[in-house]
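Lab notes, practical 5.
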Amino acid sequence: MVSDFERPKRLVTLRRDGDDFVVLFYPEDIVVFRHNEPNALRKMRTFLRWKIIGDSSGSGDTTIAAL
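Output from the prediction step:
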């Protein structure tokens, strides 16, 4: 059984939006963070215990999580 500590608080997606990268709540598709570096957004989501379920940032990172 998964404890509350391990369970992600929020599901999000990461994608490019023009020159920036954005983190969006899933499934609402609401932009919550915007930054010019995708790695900074990945570090932020780790701290907040959010789970990236879709990553179309194009950075070649293999940390894409599946539902």
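Observations recorded by the TA: Residues 61-67 have pLDDT under 50 and may be disordered. Residues 38-48 form the longest helix (11 residues).
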